[in-house]
Amino acid sequence: MTSRTPFEALVRERRVLGEHLVRLVLQAPEGFVSTGVPDEWVALTLPGQFQSRYYTVRSVADGLLILDVVVHEQGLVTEWAQTDCVGDRVGLSAPKGSFELPADAGWVLLAGDLTGLPAMARIAESLGSMPVQIHAEVPDGPMPDYVAAPVTWHDAPSGTSNLAAIVRDLLWPEGPGYFWMAGESAQMRDIRRHARHVLGWDTRHYDVMGYWSGSRGRQTRQVDPGPVYARGKAMGRSDEQIWADYDAARATSEEVVQRPSREERA
């Protein structure tokens, strides 16, 4: 446990929800407090690793924290999540969220690909009687048991997205509302421009978040943190010193994708 990962959590259960979605049930660490913001996320750091990846907190209840992980061809968490990881201890950051319903909103529309589905499901659960529509782009067909709200399902092979075209063709409810969307970064940029320049909305009434990049692809790590970690421990170095060793070795050669702040998304 370090200043970068202030919490340590035990993996209690691994459950396959679909070909591209795995559920991890963690023992919620002592002192971990949910923000209550329904799209909150945490940085997840795997055993013996230094890089973090960001995941939506699907739920926190009864001492358990649930993360639903999208799996694909290769990747830091993908490879680990497809193993028998029960019993592993992982690092977690403090949770953060951005969903902020305007006071004048009379409806909510959510759109996203499979990476955004956990947040959309949790948001829908938090809205009570507020009218909500969901457009979900998924690779393996509808998942009606996953979301307790009306969903229009759109097919998209894994690693692809056409959300920008889907959203441009939507018929919007009357009056002010709130539009929340998450998915591939280039698609999100197109939709942000559409919301601002075509629909003429101010930023209080939409939140568009890039969760992954199709143009960059998923690159192999140029510096394997495993040997750096093992060598540092053998030398008796602290976790913070090993972090510094790894950062120096990586020398900013590898880009780590993080969820942007609201200011960066504006």
What layout of secondary structure does this protein have?
Layout: E1 7-18, E2 21-27, E3 41-45, E4 52-61, E5 64-70, H1 76-81, E6 89-92, E7 108-113, H2 117-126, E8 132-138, E9 151-155, H3 163-168, E10 178-184, H4 185-198, E11 206-212, H5 225-234, H6 239-250, H7 262-265
Parallel strand pairs: 7-8, 7-10, 8-9, 10-11
Antiparallel strand pairs: 1-2, 1-6, 2-5, 3-4, 3-6, 4-5
What does this structure look like?
The chain contains 7 helices and 11 strands. Helices cover 23% and strands 29% of the residues. The longest helix has 14 residues, at 185-198. The chain has a 6-stranded antiparallel β-barrel with strand order 1-2-5-4-3-6. The protein folds into 2 domains: 7-97, Elongation Factor Tu (Ef-tu), domain 3 (Beta Barrel), CATH 2.40.30; 108-214, Nucleotide-binding domain of ferredoxin-NADP reductase (FNR) module (Rossmann fold, 3-Layer(aba) Sandwich). It has 266 residues and is an alpha/beta fold. Helix 5 packs antiparallel against helix 6. The two termini are 33 Å apart.
